[in-house]
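**Protein fold record**
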Amino acid sequence: MSACIGIMHGELEGFPPGKTVAFAAAAAMLAHTVVGDTPLSSENDIDRAMTERQAT
């Protein structure tokens, strides 16, 4: 569900195809961090997940 919402959001916002797919993937990834099937991440949360790298 979150991936579909991410695709719809990217299309409605006019994102380029690559950013739309990355946005959808990040939205789906964040959805797996909470219990239930309700997307709770904001656009800022998803953008941050797309750009931040985990320190190794």
